Amino acid sequence: MFPSPIRLSKSRFLSGLQCAKRLYYEVHTPELAAAVDPERQAIMNMGIEIGEYARRWFPDGILVQETYRQTHAALRTTMELVKDPETSVIFEAAFEWQGTLVRVDMLERIEDDAWRLIEVKSTAKVKPIHIQDVAVQAEVLCGAGIRIARVGLMHLNTRYVYEGGPIDVEALFVIEDLTEQVQQHSSRVREQLEHMRHMLRAPFPPAIEPDGHCHSPYVCPFWPHCTQDKPDRWIYQLPGSRHTFKELEGQGVETIDEIPAGFQLTVLQQRMKDNVEWMSPEFSTVMQSVVYPVHHVDFEMFMPAIPPYPGTRPYRPIPIQWSNHIEHQDGRIQHDTYLCTEPKDPREEIARSIIATVGETGTICVYSENERHILLSLAEAFPQLKGELLKIVERLWDLFAVIQQHYYHPDFRGSLSIKSVLPALVPHMAYQDLAIHNGAMASVVYRKMVLDELDLIERARMASDLREYCARDTMGMLMLRHVLLEKATACIAPSSDA
Ligand code: SF4
Fold first, then answer.
1. Using N-to-C axis directions, what is the helix angle for 456-489 and 439-451, rounded to 10°?
2. What's the mean pLDDT in 422-431?
């Protein structure tokens, strides 16, 4: 059925390790994959950026310029560089062996005929999948006649604190030696490649059912295709442990409604199974415990891999904006907001402006622990503001925790994220009408707004989208609190706790 030889690559090999059916689809029916969303694209772009940045570690390195589509030329250039004794490091070296093609991030000559293979990752540590990643590369290079003496993985060092001036590349990255682990894997790699080739020659994809493996170590783009015929209340939608799913699947249970009585579920899973509105006996008291003026505060942040400002570290969250909808006792609603639109460290302005907006009185309603963590990190960064920031922390009232302990609605469908709770209880406050739908997208837009070359109109539009998104969160929180307060004080007899 597939007469032409099927070429494998490192990424196809890793897909095949995650799921044979995924590899089959990638090779034979890639059009079934979901489109790459902007957040996923941003993560991929960041990986490319980190890979390029890491090359600064070896200033004498030579890049194989040919792209992934110019395979033959890339292979030829690589061989010329390998043969040239003056070459110390090659970036993006291309090798092929028995129909498997790899591009190596860094290949460092450590003896005349011996090399160190280095893979660059934008992660903060070595993950199990990385061993397989470098093992297949090492195997292809060995097959192509390159002697690999050592194998390393370069990743970000999250303990590195940027002090200003040029980044210290050797402090920003760490190279961990994986030679031994790769040696242990090498005999299996050939077998795995052979197995994948054999599977790819079959006329149909392997019969593999979607479950937890579809999201780890990577989110599979064929998930929508593989799950399109699953029932509405499929057991995979149960929140929490994938063990529960496996156990239920093993018992032949397909929907949440078929879960047998007595099967051990977490509180949230049980609420989803009960599928009825529920409130605790204390719900009304808790909802009425707020003190006016009630602030509704949300921060947005971004987490750059390469620390941009002195005192910051890789992936350390940096707050970039906040919104505060203030409800006064007389019913007046006031809206304060802050967004840093310049490419500068916004933290001190964020700290000072949030202190100003929340004043000294009133409950500060937030949704999740995120705001607490941001305030604590600001208190650590600016000791002169620590006292005032810690007082704010003491006034936080987490609506997420309140809902978690005291309320459930069937339309939450097992998720207490504000993106699920808000549309369920305040339908006109959903996020789909906004240009920015979630925090990850906000972070991508912010980064673009402050760092990319944009015209003024585009920059202003992005700033407006960001403000609108953050304001939706806080106005949404205010309206959500009202709806919940009404429910809590209405005459609905509390059911017994599950
Ligand atoms: S969704 Fe799951 S089962 Fe389907 S191809 Fe992807 S990993 Fe395999």
1. 160
2. 89
* Fold assignment, 283-489: Nucleotidyltransferase; domain 5 (3.30.420)
| For the chain, domain boundaries | 8-200, 283-489
Domain 8-200 carries which CATH code?
3.90.320
Output the ligand 1 site: residues, CB below 6 A.
18-19, 21-22, 25, 208, 210, 213-214, 220, 222-223, 226
Check if 8-200 and 283-489 are the same fold.
no
Other Cβ atoms less than 10 A from the Cβ of 191: the count is 9
Amino acid code (one letter) for 396: L
Tell me the average pLDDT of the chain.
Answer: 93
pLDDT tens track for 445-485: 998 898 887 888 999 999 999 999 999 999 999 999 999 99
Task: Give the C-alpha separation, 239 to 307, whole Å.
Answer: 34
Bridge-based pairing of strands 294-302 and 318-327 is antiparallel
Site to probe by mutation for ligand 1, drawn from 14, 18, 19, 211 as the one with most ligand atoms within 8 Å of Cβ, is 19
Query: Which protein residue has the closest C-alpha to ligand 1 atom 3?
Result: 210
Using CA positions, which residue lies closest to atom 1 of ligand 1? 223
Which atom of ligand 1 is found nearest the CA of 208? 3
Ligand 1 pocket mutation pick from 12, 14, 15, 21 by most atoms within 8 angstroms of CB: 21
**Token reading at 496:** 């017994």
